[in-house]
Amino acid sequence: xxxxxxIIQRVWECGAPVRGCSPDNWRADAFGALICxxxxxxxxxxxxxxxxxxDPAGPDDExxxxxxxxxxxxxxxxxxxxxxxxxxVIIA
Length: 92
What we know:
Elements: H1 5-12, E1 16-17, E2 26-28, E3 34-36, E4 49-53, E5 65-69, H2 70-78
Antiparallel strand pairs: 1-2, 2-3, 4-5
């Protein structure tokens, strides 16, 4: 799916700020994985992320969209009820 720059930014802002890091550049996803704003849609990057759904079968509206590390997104789609939380990052 192709998202507008505005939606990408609003979804980015749903990520958790990371203490000691600029929230404009670094956030944590819902599973505690560190993501970098400039690595959007970069699969294979250590900090790459994409827009994922809280409910994989749910709608593509902003209430269901969250920034997810690309590996978190894959695991969540495969088994949404069994994705283990990664070691949490320290958040502000």
